[in-house]
Amino acid sequence: MSILKKIIEDKIKEVENDKKLIPLSKLKENLIKKNNYFQKKLEEFKKNNKTAIIAEVKKASPSKGILLNNFDHMKIAEEYVRANAACLSVLTEKKYFLGSKKYLSDIKSKFNIPILCKDFFIDTYQVYEAAHIGADCILILLNSVDDDLINDLLEAASICGLDAILEIHNEDEMARALNFNNVILGINNRNLNTFETDIKTTVEIFKKFELSNYTVICESGIYSKEDINFIKTETGINNFLIGESLIKSDSIYSKLIELNS
Hints:
Radius of gyration: 17 Å
Order of helices and strands: HHHEEEHEHEHEHEHEHEHEHH
Shape: globular
Oligomer: single chain
Number of strands: 10
Structural class: alpha/beta
Helix content: 40-55%
Number of helices: 12
Mean pLDDT: 96
Strand order of the largest sheet: 1-4-5-6-7-8-9-10
């Protein structure tokens, strides 16, 4: 069984348990609708000719293990905000990425910055839960859900006022993603079979599908200002989701300043 299938199986069990702890009716009852803050921030950065970096609060991953031993989500978030990140991405998947929903709610309680809830969304319950803990955006992994579920997740996101990223890894997935409206497209440069990254993936897919009229995020494999400039020159993409190279740097603040320069 692939690691993704294991994650999804465990996520289904986790969501069923969460529903028992906090029923969907209660989440809906206490819903405070967001205002698509995430998308608006990306547009603001583009209008002001500033690179929009979505800086990730990430402790570990299945392929790389623990990225930072002395992990302090609040300290990391503070450095990101000081270094002018456009948005944050917070891992909330707890078993394989050692994330936490508390990380997101803690950060949102202190910092007025758009936050992506980075998890494996397989149930509309999770969308309302994401809104409840303070998220402004969700990420839908296209290859782990069918079209009907995507439509349901997007409808729930719309009700909650959340933006939604459809994440794809190859041309077949992008062809499918373009069937959906009002979404941000995330091109992940990581090959899920080999776990290798190649930022040329973004360039090839962007050019083949002529994505200039879409909001597109380049994800994974960005380690330097040169990487950012390459993507910008080849595609015009202004949005970059960056985690590992920031988390593992000697100074998170200095690294983000360098990438933002």
